[in-house]
Specification:
CATH topology: Lipocalin
Number of helices: 2
Helix content: under 10%
Number of domains: 1
Structural class: mainly beta
Order of helices and strands: HEEEEEHEEEEEEEEEEEE
Shape: elongated
CATH architecture: Beta Barrel
CATH class: Mainly Beta
Distance between the termini: 14 Å
Strand content: over 45%
CATH superfamily: Autotransporter beta-domain
């Protein structure tokens, strides 16, 4: 596979900042040929309304978030199977405005958020091979299906202060097993991915409390059209449910039920560089949650 084709067909940049655990990531399972190395840098602006339980006396709360993240992707071989390791390190600047007990309140936070490492393996599809052999594989298999699994860990290394209710770090581990499939036919692709988010306890939650959270179950789907000039577009949708918080043994009744919609556009800048533009809308289906809009721009380089 030539470098321009490799760059545009393989690279994708996930959401840099999420108000909830969910994200939307088209081209998640695209294989990266052996011998490739990928670095990336992205920016996301997210704004929206947050809806709290009335007992908290927080009303008309809005948020504005600017996030930047660096990413490194490295393929590896396990037996004959092709895998990859993704490392993401985000930096976040956030502002919340609203009424707290009827009084106007503004909170600002900025700093490094929690980094994430993800290991993925393609179980069905092309084996571990270099770019040239992968190009031959796709030429001889214009219609093909891939199936992959992954496991991601988000580490509690971001900025966190237990005396503050709002932070850019979570002070807990997040474990995310994931399984997905991709069906390619010609210049079209369809992807379906399911995830489970598992949360460790935050033993240093606000006011020296212990915060637990139930798992979130999520599914996302993508329809992707590639073009002969190496540009591509995608339309995506996702749904997630669960995640009710428990503080000091008391269930908060804040279970998530969220819909996400997204459109993405990718194009090459050169033989080894590409950019992607993303729009994402999230909508809560419950009285507690958030409605947000996000726009993002990412750059990736193959070497």
């Amino acid at each position: 596979m030539t470098k321009p084709i490799l760059l545009v067909s393989l690279l994708s940049f996930c959401s840099l900042y999420k108000g909830t655990a969910q994200d939307i990531e088209p081209r998640r399972w695209a294989p990266v040929p052996m011998g490739s190395h990928i670095i990336g840098l992205g920016y996301v602006y997210q704004s929206g309304d947050i809806y709290f339980d009335p007992v908290l006396q927080a009303e008309n709360v809005t948020m504005d978030v600017h996030a930047v993240a660096g990413v490194y992707i490295q393929p590896f071989k396990l037996g004959t199977k092709l895998g990859r390791i993704d490392v993401q390190v985000p930096y976040v600047s956030a502002r919340w405005d609203g009424l707290l007990s009827g009084e106007p309140t503004v909170k600002k936070r900025y700093g490094f958020s929690d980094p994430r490492i993800r290991v993925s393996m393609n179980l069905i599809g092309p084996n571990a091979m270099n770019a040239k052999d992968m190009l031959e594989y796709y030429k001889s298999h214009p219609v093909n299906t891939m199936v992959g699994v992954s496991f991601a860990v988000t580490f509690p290394l971001g900025l966190y202060d237990e005396d503050r209710l709002l932070n850019v770090g979570q002070n807990r581990f997040v474990f995310r097993p994931q399984v997905g499939m991709v069906h390619n036919w010609g210049l079209w692709s369809y992807e379906l991915t399911s995830s489970v988010f598992l949360f460790s306890n935050n033993n240093h939650f606000y006011n020296k409390q212990v915060r637990k959270q139930k798992p979130v179950i999520a599914v996302q789907s993508h329809l992707i059209k590639r073009f002969t000039n190496n540009m591509w577009v995608s339309l995506s949708g996702a749904y997630g449910v669960g995640g009710e918080a428990i503080v000091e043994g008391n269930e908060l009744g804040d279970q998530h039920s969220d819909l996400l919609y997204s459109a993405s556009f990718g194009m090459p800048l050169s033989r080894t560089q590409a950019v992607k533009i993303v729009y994402l809308h999230t909508k809560t289906l419950r009285d507690v949650g958030a409605d947000t809009d996000s726009v993002g721009l990412s750059w990736t380089k193959l070497f």
